[in-house]
Amino acid sequence: MVTLYHILDGRLERTPWRLGAPLPERLVWADIFEPTTAEEQSLEALLGLDLPTRAQMGEIEASSRLYEIDGARFMTATVLSKAETPEAEASAITFVMANHVLVSLRYTDPLAFSVYAARALKLPALCETGETAMAGLIEAIIDRAADVLENVAAEMDALSREIFRVKTGEKESIDLEDALRQLGRFSDLAGKVRESTASMERVITFLTQVLQTEVKKDYRARLKTMARDIRSIAEHASALAQKVNFLLDATLGLINIEQTRVIKILSVAATVFLPPTLMASIFGMNFDVMPELHWDFGYPMAIVLMIVSAVLPYFYFKRKRWL
Question: Record keywords: Lyase included (predicted)?
Fold first, then answer.
């Protein structure tokens, strides 16, 4: 699907592009989402660009992600998507700026794109040129990353309270196995946010260098503000990652304590019932000469001995505070 954003009568218009159709005159932003081979080839001819393939977009070398060819600036960044689902992704998206037109090529659908598009349609000043569209998209991506971290921090605080909550008779303790799964999700999200912010910071640095003499001072100041926001988000993500590690260690420690408690109970039970078992084994032997078997009080005596042999170790363990 290809969506074109262009200026018409002073307003920003959104128009779906069909294969074989021409481009509008005042094109500002061409958003290319999961194009077919025919669509990609046709757009390359119309735009005069050689767009990277999906495999090329996945390359991690800086020279493959940030480069300039014949005045067209190619920038590939990693952007977080599906953050609210268990299948969160950090996928590569390529941005191309040429002749004041922004082209975005993507195979994922981050929420930041739809948020920025809706905002730009209401406020056309946010999408007057490819440069302003690029800045607006970066800001939307940064805002989205910050929102994800805020949600993770809130959920992590709630989980931390549950993990360290003192057990009461009214509430059951938290499922520690489920807590481990949640911590794994938090760690994955924090890692993907850090990966995304690192790539976006490189894009901002590249933009600052190539547009140094082409944009106004307020635009450069806008880029500097975004760079500061990126760094603060990266620091926050690192802090959350450290907290995840702490909670992970604490949860594993609590699991070990629970396992130790179970083993302790089983060990004590085995020790307590060992003497009665010994008594029962002795009186259960089938020898001819066993006077207790013919005594009227032999059976009650055996029962009493087994009870005493179980009770004495129990009180001994209690006195030693092993229970």
Answer: no
**Contact status, residue 43 vs residue 2, Cβ threshold 8 Å:** yes
Q: Where are the domains of the chain?
A: 2-257, 260-319
Domain 2-257 has CATH 3.90.280.10: no
Work out the angle at residue 293's Cα, subtended by the Cα atoms of residues 290 and 297, and round it to the nearest 5 degrees: 130
* pLDDT tens for each residue of 168-216: 555 556 788 889 999 999 999 999 999 999 999 999 999 998 888 788 8
List phi, psi (to 5°) of 98: -150, 125
Average pLDDT over residues 35-56: 92
pTM of the model: 0.80
Residue 13 tokens, joined: 């218009």
Q: Read off the pLDDT of each residue in 211-228 and give the average, rounded to a whole number.
A: 88
Classify strands 101-106 and 27-33 as parallel, antiparallel or unpaired.
parallel
**90 contacts 79 by C-beta, under 8 angstroms:** yes
In terms of Cβ atoms closer than 10 Å to its own Cβ (0-12, 13-18, 19+), residue 103 is buried
Fold that domain 260-319 belongs to in CATH: Methane Monooxygenase Hydroxylase; Chain G, domain 1 (1.20.58)
